[in-house]
Amino acid sequence: MPAFKSDFLRTMSERGFIHQTSDDAGLDQIFAKETVTAYIGFDATAKSLHAGSLIQIMMLHWLQQTGHRPIALMGGGTSMIGDPSFKDEARKLLTPADIDDNIAGIRRNFMPYLKFGSGPNDAVMVNNADWLMEINYVNFLRDVGRHFSVNRMLAFDSVKLRLDREQSLSFLEFNYMILQAYDFVELYKRLGCRLQMGGSDQWGNIINGIDLGRRMEDAQLYALTTPLLTTSSGAKMGKSASGAVWLDPEMLSPYEFWQYWRNTEDADVARFLKLYTTLPLDEVARLERLGGSEINEAKKILATEITAHLHGRAAAEQASETARKTFEEGALADTLPTVETDRAALEAGVGILSLLVSAGLASSNGEARRHVQGGAVRLNDQPVSDDRRLVTLQDLSPENVVKLSLGRKKHILVRPA
């Protein structure tokens, strides 16, 4: 990796964000000389982003912190198609109303990381539906489509993978890369955007945009991609055993978000501290040197710093304290995630398998039964060995809840309603 002179690229390099750029020297030069406008595109396919998008959000955060202007591009138009890149099958098509609702939710994800406004380096949120939905198809084919070689498009790994597996790739999806390339040109024309950033799986799409900008506008555009992150064991970022690690606190509690990062594998702690927190690198180096059981302190700091940035310092410290009481003192922490169940049902008795499913600790009765038979389930900190066990009002604690646990790290309070 070259020694960058500009603050932004030096920060990106030192903290491990850079996988590849289209022109190291050229990009470094414009960052050193001017305020650069750069963008990252985000699908509007859910009401919230998840932790897998956090590396991209942190890039935009550092871009703004080093004096440049970030654009968060919402794929209001392209989300109606779906990005086929490295997907095994077509995505479900969304309605315009669905997409608008999703964009409103996603905007809230960015608020802790970016300052939006009209200043020279204030962040901007843009929806590509603003231009894509107005396109005249014949004119688009003539003005844009003529610059694309089908032979070259078929050679991109993202497309080739689907075709090699003899999986269907619709003409709708095939057009996605043309529309994404056109987004780059539109953002250059409208906002002077010179750089597109994204995961390494987007490299082909970004290079298409650079090439289209050169052909249509004689523009010098740039690409910067991040590594596709997985944990040391190969798991995808942003997913846990119980589902997506959402950034929206209404979809995943701050405690559960904190717990996801607390469970980071030892080998990933230093890397994640660099990528997902703003801690100084000398502090990261100090934490990296911790060994043995001390690594758990580094994991708690990692979890608390990431949670504080997203949900606020108070929520992060409350999550940390909840975990301390639950795991270190064995106390019943009233800030654990809570589900409600019908009091009349509890009076009659609710099966332990059904309760595990309704609490989100198992996806089916079969999975719940395997957890019980494997000795992983506890009720009020007592092991459950009978998968026919009924949970009743007699199991309520003095705090009027039942504590349901799966393994050492998943705890839910069940409260009668």
Report on the architecture of this protein.
The protein folds into 3 domains: 7-226, HUPs (Rossmann fold), CATH 3.40.50.620; 253-329, Tyrosyl-Transfer RNA Synthetase, CATH 1.10.240.10; 338-416, RNA-binding S4 domain (Structural Genomics Hypothetical 15.5 Kd Protein In mrcA-pckA Intergenic Region, Chain A, Roll). 45% of the residues lie in helices and 14% in strands. It is built from 19 helices and 15 strands. It has helices at residues 7-14, 24-33, 54-65, 96-110, 129-132, 137-143, 150-155, 157-164, 171-174, 176-191, 203-217, 254-262, 269-276, 281-288, 295-311, 313-329, 343-348, 352-358, 365-373; strands at residues 20-21, 37-43, 69-75, 124-127, 195-199, 222-226, 239-240, 243-244, 338-341, 350-351, 377-379, 382-383, 390-391, 402-406, 410-416. A hairpin with a 2-residue loop joins strand 11 and strand 12 (382-383). Helix 10 (176-191) packs across helix 11, helix 12 (254-262) packs antiparallel against helix 15 and helix 15 (295-311) packs antiparallel against helix 16.
Provide a short characterization of the protein structure.
The protein is α/β, with parallel strands linked by helices. The chain has helices spanning 7-14, 24-33, 54-65, 96-110, 129-132, 137-143, 150-155, 157-164, 171-174, 176-191, 203-217, 254-262, 269-276, 281-288, 295-311, 313-329, 343-348, 352-358, 365-373, and strands spanning 20-21, 37-43, 69-75, 124-127, 195-199, 222-226, 239-240, 243-244, 338-341, 350-351, 377-379, 382-383, 390-391, 402-406, 410-416. A six-stranded mixed sheet has the order 1-6-5-2-3-4, with helices on both faces. The protein has a five-stranded mixed sheet with strand order 9-15-14-11-12.
